[in-house]
User: Fold this.
Amino acid sequence: MEHNSIADYEEDEDVEIPDHMLRDEFCDPENPVALNFTEISAAAYKIRDGIQQTPCSLSQMSSQYDMQIYFKKEFLQYTGSFKERGARYTLLQLSADQQNKGVIAASAGNHALALSFHGKSLGIPITVVMPIVAPLMKVSACRQYGANVIVKGNDIGESKKFALRIAKKKGLLYINGYDHPNILAGQGTMGLEILSQVPDLDACVIPVGGGGLIAGAAVAIKSLNPNVQIIGVESVQCASFSEALKAGHPIYTQSKSTLADGLAVPTVGVNAFETAKGLIDKMVLVKEEYIALAILRLIEQEKAVVEGAGATGLAAIIQGLLPELKGKKVVIALCGGNIDTTALGRVLERGLAAEGRLVRFVVTVSDRPGGIAELTRLISDLGVSIKDILHERAWLKSDVFSVQVKCVVETRDMEHSKELEQSLRKKYAQVIWGPVHQENVDID
Ligand SMILES: Cc1ncc(COP(=O)(O)O)c(C=O)c1O
Assistant:
């Protein structure tokens, strides 16, 4: 019986396949395989006509951070990420029989997009299992590329089990997006490109999820120039590679919600870890607010729309985690641009808040005619723009001729915000500055 629809697969789920049979044969924790340089060269040759050579250009942000920053713009790949490199190479390496049967993968986004797109262009059937938390934009894009998309699993771990089960039943090949050996080889081609574009770089900063990209790129770069520093970046919310390095092997590390959803892999790849562990010079963990800030700066200054995972490299610089790179030539991989428009709106607001350009405060003013007008005049005289304003009387415990005004305002920068705060404090006795966590702020 042909199985094309989700309903068919869900029916099949009743037939239990024991967990021990659900192992991914290419990613064996007992026998991890380290990638070598020859495989990356082979991959570069094979995918050369199907992948973009993305720019690696000097950024005008360089002077701001006192280093020569080059951005490797992998978000300009057709489906918006570097994942196409590994996906295309892996599909090209399949036997004719496997190409006919097709492949399956679990992915919350970029790997699924890359496989779907290149599967279509090479005529290979693709099934992707995406967790229910996968961004809608990515789910519908995979469908548009003609993939059989199954949304199943609360997280990527559950989706993977489901995908492995289908793989066993249908004889489909499961392709791990950060650990299949051919995926690592394909991702390594980004490293080759970087070296040809910026031959004398001192360091390369690479976001780390399951570890496939850093493993491939590190082999490519260190094989040709061992002096280049390889720096990995994770969000503090999902530090699985850092934890694996501490433990000496991949270890389950709970992922918490993060803007860098592409990096939320609880256990890094065994082959990726084996390959990368001796090649990484430093790992850093970035905070969420710096990821938001990096996304904002990339849009404003670089005209680049980059998703959270892709912006972590710049976030590490902004957070001041890499002071040793000052004066150096540094390539930062901007490796993905697939961010939901709604998420982008929220992220930009967070970024503006983190930079002190979006400020919230509560001030108590006179409720007599002109009281609020005086406040808004003070604000406008400073060139500050009011985004939201709300006034409340009923909850105040002080004199009945006072009113509490809550404002959200937009300023030029942190200095400008400070100027506003000082002016408000000079004029008004009761000012609460910054985020107000209690909804009914009680000013006596
Ligand atoms: C945009 C982006 N950057 C970085 C990564 C991390 O790659 P890897 O899982 O190979 O470490 C991912 C993974 O999906 C990604 O989507």
Observations:
- DSSP finds 17 helices and 14 strands in the chain.
- Confidence is low (pLDDT under 50) at residues 437-444.
- Residues 81, 110-111, 178, 207-214, 262-263, 265, 307, 309-310, 335-336 surround pyridoxal-5'-phosphate (CB under 6 Å).
